[in-house]
Each structure stands twice: as C-alpha cells, then as structure tokens.
Design brief:
Layout lengths: L3 E5 L4 H12 L3 E6 L2 H13 L3 E6 L5 H15 L5 E4 L14 H27 L4 E6 L12 H20 L5 E8 L2 E2 L9 H6 L3 E2 H12 L3 H5 L4 E4 L1 H12 L2 H11 L3
Parallel strand pairs: 1-2, 1-4, 2-3, 4-5, 5-6, 6-9, 7-8
Helix pairs in contact: 1-7, 3-4, 4-5
The protein binds nicotinamide-adenine-dinucleotide.
Nicotinamide-adenine-dinucleotide binds next to α1 and α4.
C-alpha cells in the first residue's frame, strides 16, 4: 500500500519543498492551497520526478472545502492518511497597533482555525490508518512571544498547545501529533520582513531544510521515539533557544528576547 501525505499550503515555500521530498520518497502527495497556478506547477514537477500527486483548491479556513478535499484524498488512498501536514500560514510583521484588525483576524483564521479544521476533519482518516502522524507547522516564535510578530507568535503558541494536548489524547488512537519549530526561513513569508530578530539572527534556513526535518520527524530516530519527542526545533539557533528556554528564569528569557529584538 502506497503511503500518503496531505499537505496544506503546498503551492510554495515549505509546503512545496515538503511535497516534492515526500513524492521523491514514494508517498502519494495530496497538495492543497489557494494558489492554483502554484499547485499546477507542483503537480507537473512531482510528475517530472516520477511521483504521484493530486492537487486542489483549498482555503483552510473553509471547513466545507476541507471536507471535500479530504473526501477526494480518501477516495484516492483507499481511506488512509499516513501523514497530515498542517502547513498553510500567514505572517504580518510590524508594530501590533499598525497592523489592521482585519489582518490580525485573517492571520488568526488561517494559522489557528485552519489547523483546527485540518485536525478535526482528518481525524477519521488518521484514526483508520495505523501509525498515522500529524505534523503542525509551529515556529521558534512559540518559545517566547516575539516583538513585532506579536499576533503571529501568539498563533504559533496556539499550535504548540494543541499539538501537546492532542499528542496525549490521540496516542489512544495510535496517532502521533508533533510540531516543527523553525527559526526564520527564506520563503515568500519572510521576503519583506525586517524586524529586530530578523536583523539580529538573520534568515539562515531554506525550505528544503524544513522539508528534510519534517521527513526526519515523521520517521524519527530511536531516541526521538523512545523519549516521545513532541517539538522539533529546526536549525542550530532554534535548538539552542529551545534548550536554553527550558532552564532560563523568566526575567532572563525576557531580557534575552528584548536584546535579540533590538529593544
Ligand atoms: N518562513 C518562515 O520563516 C517560517 C518559520 C517558522 C514557521 N513557518 C511556518 O511554516 C509554514 C509555511 O510557511 P512558508 O514560509 O512556506 O510560507 P509561504 O508564504 O512561502 O507559503 C505559505 C503557503 O500557504 C498558502 N496559504 C495561505 N493562506 C492559505 C489558506 N487560507 N488556505 C490554504 N493555503 C493558504 C499560501 O498560498 C502559500 O502557498 C507556515 O505555517 C509558517 O508560519 C515559517
């Protein structure tokens, strides 16, 4: 039976790199996005490497469309879903009060409601698939609230929390729920972003780095499996920040984040 992966936000960036990598590794890829030309390119690029894909329009904030795409995916996979990757996301950088409420709400809708829609609607398929894995795209901004990324960072704390909770709940159903914590990645999302932390830390990761890390997390090492790793920081910087944050007192975490944000 061919393994299958359902990826939201698959037309560009991390989603596209992940779709191509999983296709090369023999997965049937379901790639979904609001960017249909991007999906057509993904589909032909997957075919060019000898892979199999189905693609379709999906606005993750729309539960009806989510349900339709999942039904089509289930029809193609014989009712299985080995991996769900909740990747679609939006970022708005700047002073909180300078970003319109409408933008804040849209970010909350995509980054939070989109993930809830994916998790809730895919649950029957995941439950029906032995050893299913859910990968949520959180971020290193789920370690400490980020100045100039306040709302985005808060949505990623939501992703962190729901990942931890469902990692416990869904173990009963043999579904492993994990999340990825990359620091800044070179994609369209960060193209025009200039915050204190992008300046102090730089943008060092590529979409391919995250795709490799996702594949590795889906097929974890023995120690990651034994210790039931839930959060996967990506890149040396995110790994250091994750480790330090576990032992750092609140005042020191605040000071470090203040300095990194150039405040
Ligand atoms: N780029 C970074 O620095 C970075 C760092 C950490 C985490 N992440 C997370 O990784 C994920 C992917 O980010 P990226 O850098 O590849 O971004 P990107 O902007 O390059 O790609 C995001 C994709 O999501 C799609 N999308 C947006 N709204 C959608 C919606 N309503 N429904 C369906 N698709 C939608 C876009 O069309 C796009 O194809 C996001 O969740 C992001 O928060 C990114």
């Amino acid at each position: 039976m061919q393994r299958s992966v359902f990826i939201t936000g698959a037309a560009t960036g991390i989603g596209r790199a992940t779709a191509l990598l999983f296709a090369r590794r023999g997965y049937l890829v379901g790639g979904y996005d609001i960017d249909e030309p991007g999906l057509q390119l993904l589909s032909s690029d997957i075919a060019a490497v000898g892979g199999a894909a189905l693609v379709g329009h999906l606005d993750v904030t729309d539960p009806v469309e989510m349900s339709q795409r999942l039904s089509e995916f289930a029809a193609a996979t014989g009712g299985r879903m080995d991996v769900l990757i909740n990747n679609a996301g939006l970022l708005n950088a700047g002073h909180f009060e300078d970003i319109s409420l409408e933008m804040h709400y849209r970010t909350i809708d995509v980054n939070i409601k989109g993930v809830v829609n994916g998790l809730h609607t895919a649950f029957p398929l995941l439950k029906a698939t032995p050893g299913a894995v859910v990968v949520n795209l959180a971020s290193a901004s789920a370690i400490y609230g980020q100045a100039d990324l306040a709302n985005y960072s808060a949505t990623k704390f939501y992703v962190r929390a729901i990942t931890e909770a469902l990692n416990l709940e869904w173990a009963d159903h043999d579904i492993r729920v994990i999340d990825m914590w990359p620091l800044f990645v070179h994609t369209a999302m960060t193209r025009d972003v200039h915050t204190g932390t992008t300046e102090s830390l730089g943008i060092r990761l590529t979409a391919s780095d995250i795709a490799e890390a996702i594949l590795g997390a889906v097929h974890p090492s023995r120690s990651q499996r034994v210790f039931r790793q839930v959060h996967y920081p990506v890149g040396a910087q995110a790994k250091v920040f994750t480790s330090v944050s576990r032992f750092s007192p609140g005042w020191l975490s605040r000071l470090a984040n203040k300095k990194l944000a150039g405040r």
